[in-house]
Specification:
Elements: H1 2-13, E1 21-24, E2 36-43, E3 45-46, E4 58-59, H2 62-83, E5 87-95, H3 102-115, E6 121-126, H4 133-141, E7 146-152, H5 156-161, H6 168-181, E8 185-192, H7 199-211, E9 216-221, H8 229-237, H9 244-260, E10 263-265, E11 270-273, E12 287-290, E13 295-297, E14 301-305, H10 309-318, E15 324-329, H11 332-346, E16 348-350, H12 353-358, H13 367-375, E17 379-382, E18 386-389, H14 391-403, H15 405-418, E19 424-426
Parallel strand pairs: 2-5, 2-12, 3-4, 5-6, 6-7, 7-8, 8-9
Antiparallel strand pairs: 1-15, 1-19, 9-11, 10-11, 13-14, 14-15, 16-18, 17-18
Helix pairs in contact: 2-3, 2-10, 7-9
């Protein structure tokens, strides 16, 4: 029922020309408007495969990671040949656990700086199990300014529950190391709506996170994708995740607690200290992805590389080809809806700024959306330039995300993990 509802809503958002279907394709997007793009590099290796993690990952193998690095170098060079000297607004290394290949990432950054114009920040994510003083200093010396550490919880029984291999003492130690190293933005990831979790236990994690004085705290619920092992674990152990009413109480408490400590909301899930640079892994309007399972989007084409790591390496090294697996064409109308979705995710909607992005297109008018948001009581503040969502509005954006975006992720990821080059994936 929910899948059919999601498809109906998406069809209302899209143009008649939109197929809403990924099909087999062997090339990345053709071009980027204004020669501008954000870069994402996916490192799929992990020492420990957490059951709740929905991302493309495989067990760490030193020899395979070296082959993967060589393939990345070739893919990046071919991108410079295809697009020329792109201006890169930001560079983000995600995973997996990117810090497993830290020295190779330094070489990749050097290569990118020679091939592209890179005025933006460089960000990376990692896990407490990977952090040592030497590794933190190396990251700063390589130019990483924004770092996110996936703590998830400061309580041992929850860490065991979600398959993390470190304990709360290690999580606290990693936070202290990163804070002392002096990254301009340190983001701490915490999870809520864990099976059996109470509001008081979540409050404990928040207070511990605040003691480390990070520039940003991101709190997101446990997402139970059907294809992920965590869904099977929950079903097998008959453990229930918190119901919507309790999730709302948790979300409200997070918002109130962080606001009382001087944090401002920077997205549905994230809260940042005033003046700091926001860390985000997802809000990009034009992006070019490198690595197995990475996505690229130029406003007219949405592509994915093959998720299979050996196939990714083979396509680049042995076949001299691009590792692109699938592509979905995007109409101007659907592009506007994607843009609006991310502004809702950021919780701030420019009332006229979208016209600067899309030009004078007469169909590009979001005033009706603004009226709906006001009528639903989702607006916290409104100026002549922008509209800001309140906590209730943000919670409903989260619910819409569950219905639309997370269902799409499950559909694409399931098919892409089942076969390296799917013929057709319908959203």
């Amino acid at each position: 029922m929910l899948v059919q509802l999601a498809r109906y809503i998406r069809r209302l958002m899209a143009d008649r020309s939109d197929t809403l279907t990924f099909t087999r394709h062997n090339e990345p997007p053709t071009a980027f408007s204004g020669n501008l793009a954000e870069f994402y590099v996916h490192i799929p290796f992990c020492r420990n495969l957490c059951p709740y993690c929905p991302y493309n990952k495989i067990p760490y193998d030193a020899a395979l990671s070296l082959e993967y690095y060589r393939a990345l170098c070739i893919e990046i060079r071919r991108a410079s040949e295809r697009y020329g000297r792109l201006e890169v607004g930001s560079l983000y290394f995600g995973g997996g656990t990117p810090t497993l290949m830290l020295e190779e990432l330094g070489d990749l950054i050097d290569s990118m700086q020679k091939l592209f114009t890179m005025p933006g920040h460089v960000a990376i994510e990692t896990t407490p199990a990977e952090i040592t003083p030497a590794k933190a200093k190396l990251m700063r010396s390589l130019g990483f300014g924004l770092i996110s550490i996936g703590v998830q919880s400061f309580q041992d029984h929850f860490l065991r529950q979600i398959g993390r291999t470190y304990d709360s003492a290690a999580a606290k130690r990693a936070c202290r190391i990163l804070k002392d190293t002096g990254f301009p933005t340190l983001n701490l990831d915490l999870m809520f709506a864990l099976p059996g979790q109470s509001v008081e236990e979540l409050q404990h994690d928040l207070q511990e996170a605040l003691r480390h004085e990070p520039e940003q705290i991101t709190c997101y619920p446990l997402f139970t994708f059907p294809y992920s092992t965590v869904s099977r674990w929950i079903a097998r152990n008959r453990v229930g995740v918190p119901k919507q009413r309790l999730r709302w109480r948790m979300y409200s408490m997070i918002s109130e607690t962080l606001a009382s400590h001087g944090y401002e909301r920077s997205s549905v899930w994230s809260f940042i200290r005033k003046g700091a640079s926001a860390f985000s892994s997802v809000t990009r309007d034009r992006y070019l992805g490198f690595g197995a399972g990475s996505a690229s989007y130029n406003g007219r084409q949405f592509t994915f590389n093959t998720f299979d790591v050996p196939e990714y390496i083979s396509a680049i090294v042995n076949e001299g080809d691009f590792p692109t697996a699938i592509c979905m064409p995007v109409s101007a109308r659907l592009e506007r809806m994607f843009w609006l979705y991310w502004r809702l995710y950021e919780t701030r909607l420019p009332k006229t700024g979208y016209k600067d992005f899309f030009g004078s297109d007469p169909e590009c008018d979001f005033s009706g959306i603004f009226r709906i948001l006001r009528g639903l009581g989702f607006v916290a503040e409104e100026t002549k330039d922008r509209l800001t969502l309140n906590t209730r509005g943000c919670h409903w954006v989260h619910l819409a995300q569950n219905l639309l975006a997370l269902n799409d992720i499950n559909t694409v990821w399931s098919a892409a993990k089942a076969t390296p080059y799917p013929d057709r994936i319908r959203l």
